[in-house]
Every structure is written in C-alpha cells, then in structure tokens.
Amino acid sequence: MTDAAPQPVFLKDYTPFGFLVDQVELNFHLQPTATRVRAKIAFRPNPAARDRRFFLHGEDLTLISAAIDGSPVTPEITPEGLSCPVPEAPFVWEAEVEIAPAENTALEGLYMSNGMYCTQCEAEGFRKITFYPDRPDVMAPFRVRVDCDLPVLLSNGNPVAQGAGWAEWNDPWPKPSYLFALVAGELVATSDRFTTSEGREVALNVWVRPADQGKADYALDSLIRSMKWDEEVYGRAYDLDVFNIVAVDDFNMGAMENKGLNVFNSRYVLASPETATDRDYENIERIIAHEYFHNWTGDRITCRDWFQLSLKEGLTVFRDSQFSADMRSAAVKRIEDVMTLRARQFREDNGPLAHPVRPESYTEINNFYTATVYEKGAEVIGMLRRLVGPEGYARALDLYFARHDGQACTIEDWLQVFEEATGRDLTQFKRWYSQAGTPRVKVTEDFKDGTYTLHLEQKTPPTPGQGEKQPQVIPLALGLLSPNGDEVLPTTVIELTEARQDAVFEGLGAKPVPSLLRGFSAPVILERDSAPEERAFLLAHDTDPFNKWEAGRSLAREVLIAMVTEDAAPAPAWLDALAAVVRHEALDPAFRALALRLPGEDELAEALAERGTVPDPLAIHAARERAKTAVARHLDPLWPGLYAQMDCPGPYSPGAADAGRRALRLAALGYMARLDGGARAQAHFAAADNMTDEIGALSVLLETGGADEALDRFARRWGHDRLVMDKWFGLQATLAAPERAVAVTRALTEHPQFTWKNPNRFRAVIGGFSANAAGFHDASGAGYDLVADWLIRLDAVNPQTAARMSTAFETWARYDAGRREKAQAALERIAAREGLSRDMGEMVDRLLAAGRIAA
Ligand code: BES
Ligand code: ZN
C-alpha cells in the first residue's frame, strides 16, 4: 500500500477503454472465507480508442491464475488492479481469484448478510469480485454459474439451468459491471406473473428470509403497478422472462437496480400494517418503482462515466416522482418533494459540499450520490419538461430510447434529443448542469394605470471552486389574484434568461396579488418582501395547491424568525390563517396535516444565516416549542372534533386517503398533548393496531414528556424485529430534548441491540442524533465529539456509510465562534486519523474548507 494522497478524477480526462468486451462468463464457488471466482472474458481491440494499454481494475483480490488464449500469464499487480501485455487481435482472458465475502464489512462487492451472500457493485464494487474494466462504458452480456449448497441461487437475466447446489443464468442485454448481481441464500418468494404490452410473460418474485414471509405483498403490488405505469406513460416494456427482487438486512443504500435482480435494503421491501408506517409503505412504492424504472433509464441506456450520474439518477427520480404523483395526491407529493429538496439539496448547495449536477471532478465517486445529483437533477428535468411541454418531452424521450438503446451516454446526448425533437436551443439551459448554487430570484413590483410590472433579478452566490455565475433559464410559473380572491391571470410560465428582466401585465382593474413560482417551477429561492396579510390571503385563496401551502409555510417561517430574533409573540394573523385551513373540510386531510407542520429547526437556522444572523440552536428550539404550544392553545376547540372525525374505521389500508386522515389525526393528537398532559396520546398508543398510530403516539409522548413506560413496552413488544427497533432507536435520538440528547444517544449506543455495523441501525442512532439540531449543536461540543467518535469507528469497517453520515457537519460554519471551534476540532480529529478511508478523507477535507470560506 502507498500513502500518497488519493488523486481526483476529472471529467475532462475521459478517454474510452482500449478494448470492447464481447462476452463475460463467471463461475462462483461460494465459501464464506474462500470464495473462488473464475472469469472468462472475450476482449477485442476498440477501434474508437487510441490507448491500448490493458489495465483491469481489481481490489482486495488474491490472484490464483491468469491466462490469455489458454496460455498462463503473470500480470503486474498494484493495489488498484493489473496490467499485462496482450495480443493486437481479439483474445480470451481467463483468471481465477479468491475472495472472502464473510470478512467484507464494507458491504461493497460480494458480502454476507445474515448467512446469505449478496453483491453491491455500483459504483466500483465489481473490482472487488474479479479483475475487470470496471467502468460503465464497457458493456457486455454476462453468463453466470453459481455453485453453493444454499437453496436459492440468483443472478442477472434469465435462468438457464439449475440442479442441487448449482444454477446458471444468462443476461443477453449488454450491461456495465456495476449492474452485475448475485444472491445465494435460504429465501422464500412471494410471486406473481405479468404479461407485458409486447406479450412477454414475466415471472415476478420478491425474495425474503423465511422469518419475513408474508411481508412482501405490497412490494410485489408496487412492482406490478410500476411495470404497467412505465408501459402506459413512457411506452417502456420489460425485457426479460423474470424479475427478481431480494431483501437484505445489511445494505449501504436504499436499493439497487441490477439488471433483472434488484437488491433492496429490507426496510424498503418488508411491510405489514403492524410493523410498517404509512411513510414506509409510501417509500416502498416509490423505491420499487425507482429501481424498476432504471431498467430503461440506467440499464438499457447507461452512463458513459460517473460524472454523468444524474443522467440516470435525476431522470429516474423524476420518473418515480411522476409515478408517485399518479398513485397518490400530486399536490401533496410536490409539497413533500420540495420540503426534501430544501432540507437536503438547498442545504448542500449552500455549504462546503456544493457541486454542480454534473461535477467536474471527484476523489471518491461514492461521495457524489448526493441530493444535488438526485433531487436537483430531477428538478432540472421537471423544468425541461415545463419548457418544452408534455408533448415535446414525450417526443424527446422516444428519440432518446430509440437512438441510445444499448449505449453509455452523456448529458450532451440527453440535451441533444430535446433540441432535435423540439427545435429548442438548450445552450443556456445547460448551465443547470454545470453551475452549482441555488439561484436567488429577487422580485419587486409596481402598479400604475392598470399595468402591473414585476421586476425580476437573478443571482447565484459563489460556491466552492465557482465564483461568478451566468444567468440561467428559470421557468417562473405565476398567476395573479384580484384583491377579492378571484384569479385574474391563470398559471402562466415566464422564462427568465437575463440577470434582470421585467414582466408586464396590462388591463388590470386593481393591483393584483401575485402567486409566484407556482408548483415550485424552478429550484430557486424567491426573495420578495410581502406582508403577513398577503401570505395569509394566498393561504386562503390561491388556486395553486403548492403555493397555498407555501404561503402558510413562509408565513410560519417569518413568525418563527420574529419569535427567535425579537422574542415576539406568535402573530395572530398566522394562528387565524392556520385555524381556517384546519377547519376547511373540503381540503385534503393530508394537505391540512402538512399545513400544521412547522418549519424545522435546520430550515430556520438556514433562514437566519441567510439574513446574516448567527443562529442559536437552543433559541430556535425554544421558539418552535412556544409556537407549537401557541397553535395548540389557539386551535384548542378544534382538536377533539378533528381527532374524532379523522378516525379510520375498518381494516388498515396504506392508500393515500387513509394515510392522510391518520396524519391529520396524529397532528391533532400532538397538539392536544400540549394541553392534556399526554393522556390522549397514552390511550392512542395503547389502542394502536397499526405501526403508524403506534409510532405516531410514541413520538408525541417523546416530544411532550412521559414516554418512558411506552418506550419499554414498545421494546418488549418489538425487540425481535430489527426494522421496528430501528424506529425505536431513531426516534429517541431525534426527539430527545436538547439538554438530554447527548446522554440519551450515548446510552443508545451502549444498548445491547446497538448493532452498529448494520447501516440501518447506525443511521437510526447517529443519523437520528445528527438530525436533532439543538442536541447535535450542543454548545459544549459533546454532540460533535460523539458523532466524530462514531464516524471514526465506522470508517474502519464501512467507509461508504461513514462518509455519508459525515454530512452532519455540513452546516458547522454557520454557527458562533465557540461552536465552530469545537466542530472544526472534531473534524480535524477525524482528518488526522491514520488509515482513514478515501471516502472519509475527501469528505472531511471538503467540510473543513467551510472554515476557510466563512473566514
Ligand atoms: N443506483 C442507486 C443505488 C446506489 C447508489 C448504489 C449509490 C450504489 C451507490 C439506486 O437506484 C438509488 O438511487 N437508490 C436510492 C433510492 C432512490 C429511490 C432514490 C437509494 O438507495 O437511496
Ligand atoms: Zn437510482
């Protein structure tokens, strides 16, 4: 091993691989600590490449033998791979390596989880399985044989043959190595069949451990709905005879789209009313769809290199959002998506980790599966669709699939099909892919003689490595309301392209109230001074459901900020407006529940920092508590009726309608608990017959006090269920009162069931605590130290998950000097560790740069 600093990779340095692969044959003899992998790979010189050096990636592999065209060779081996002289004509490479899946705690490559073998190869895990050009632009058909005495043996593609202790699979569709998968275990399937629009009969299986049998029905149902939806909306049919999904308990991410063999974190497959919440069901539906949709946007058409990641992830997130909107309420889905975008992507874009949707360099690609690549990438596609219209979008996608099927593509290829299909020049639009940072759109207005003018200015702040930014194309959807609440201009899209421009509306009888950025038509921050009365007016009258919610949200944000900075009382205008929404029975209960949710502590800290005020996490927490109690009191007469009215009689259904009612009911329960000492919440907890209600009531008790007995009861009841216990761990760390949070979290890490090598459990406790803003940012620095200690510990066994969790420190530079000093010290302590992973090394470097930016 060398100690040299890991070198970054640059987009501009891309060159094609010197060889094409015609066929891959793999043979696995599975053994926990001595698995043998034999590979037979047909290579041929790539006419499109100049560089003919034969280098195969390979990490942590013991080479047993290697041969070219049947003659043994002795390659030169480094920690990154091997090189070897090769013929100038087509040749067959054969190699046998040994690996130890049972010792693989990084959960990348071939590893073991609960006695079962599984793989995770994206982005660069295949090189831990055998020597190979492990890059997405090398695509090949794979044939796989697995020898193992476990009963279920799976790989990509279609089954060829099987017997006791072996199975053979063939995947005819050329694919990059990151989509390879293998699973072996004692598993049971929940199965169905699907006939595609092209008449293909497909066998569908969701594989789980025997103990989890019976919890895969919803995942299977979601799969069938996804397959149907992709045929109807995108004209994309499935292309193999089987589709397998496997649930594994130890998994770094949510799920993975391996061709014909999706591997899922078990939390996004397993569900029963007693163990899964409404949110879990919603996530399962969405993630099953997401991975299924990758079959076309990712597998059939993949990425040329990892800089193009948003080509598949941004697009597939956009597709899964459309699907969820169709399955549930489009308005509620949009609001939820924007809440996540702001909480994660705006936060990222505004801090030391900011990067463009298509980054220009990276050191460890695993660190770039980010909110920007995913969520902002999806927003960019939403804007594109708005600009070219649904028909233009459909034409562009048809062209994309027709032209690029079987290829590894770039963002340029993607934009090109839009230009050709719609005739639109996207040169300026492309800046969304290259410029980091969230654009600010400043709006002022005047009204004279029936003419209303909006003055619009856009500006994007500097981000690490990017100073001046050029104006971007911003589709601004807007409507105008007359003072009596009528809509005088229905939704219209204005395209901002200049740093400053005006929009003029003539012939108006009175000065209108503008409803700007309807549907959140662009991922920007709108800056406009508006009176609380105007926001309350929009909350009552806006016809755009997103902006109706947004009016209430921004009003709440203003009120809370005044409470923090001026010790103000909660504005009565806000409380009255909220009461009106809650009382409005024609409104979707899910929408009303969202309106009752206050902006989070981190969002408030960000808003304060944006205004040049150093946020005080404790003051923010306290103000939020006061605001909740004020809402509880002001709406006091409404709660019991609402609570009774939102009951869901009959058997549990995870559908949006009942879920919305439960959400509103639990919101009412939460406010009631501030007035009745939690009596109703205790009763609700005791009577709950589904996990949404059980965990909902438990959360209320944790927030308002008196949860101890319920926590014990919950642990006794669910101690055997990993996924349910993750909730128990997570809630306590997230909801602990600021002054107790460090101690509570430390105690959780000493709990016998804190199996910290399991990513879900680690995320529940350490991630949960990091989301407890006032606790994590404890002035003593104890929160920073606690997280840093655990990141160091996890980094040694699982760099990928550890590095992801380091984003807890993303906002450290916005706080006061005392906190900054302590956070910086914690980060420096991590950075100084010997043997730190490349993943974590890159993250702490970038995080520490925040100090230099802020200084
Ligand atoms: N391709 C990813 C999974 C992945 C990410 C593997 C990073 C390796 C490294 C998959 O399609 C994905 O995006 N999964 C998301 C969930 C999805 C619904 C956004 C995940 O795992 O969080
Ligand atoms: Zn994905």
From TrEMBL:
Stretches assigned to the Peptidase M1 membrane alanine aminopeptidase domain: 218-432
Cofactor: Zn(2+)
Enzyme class, UniProt record, top EC level: hydrolase
Annotated Peptidase M1 alanyl aminopeptidase Ig-like fold domain residues: 437-528
Catalytic reaction list: Release of an N-terminal amino acid, Xaa-|-Yaa- from a peptide, amide or arylamide. Xaa is preferably Ala, but may be most amino acids including Pro (slow action). When a terminal hydrophobic residue is followed by a prolyl residue, the two may be released as an intact Xaa-Pro dipeptide
EC number: 3.4.11.2
Organism, as annotated: Rhodovulum viride
Protein name as catalogued: Aminopeptidase N
InterPro entries xref list: Aminopeptidase_N-like_N (IPR045357), Aminopeptidase_N-like_N_sf (IPR042097), PepN_Ig-like_sf (IPR038438), Peptidase_M1 (IPR001930), Peptidase_M1_dom (IPR014782), Peptidase_M1_pepN (IPR012779), Peptidase_M1_pepN_C (IPR024601), Peptidase_M1_pepN_C_sf (IPR037144)
Domain spans labelled Peptidase M1 alanyl aminopeptidase C-terminal: 533-848
Origin: domain of life: Bacteria
Pfam families linked to this entry: DUF3458, DUF3458_C, Peptidase_M1, Peptidase_M1_N
Record key words, sorted: Aminopeptidase, Hydrolase, Metal-binding, Metalloprotease, Protease, Zinc
GO molecular function, one term: aminopeptidase activity
Key word Zinc present: yes
Domain Aminopeptidase N-like N-terminal positions: 104-179
Protein family membership: Belongs to the peptidase M1 family.
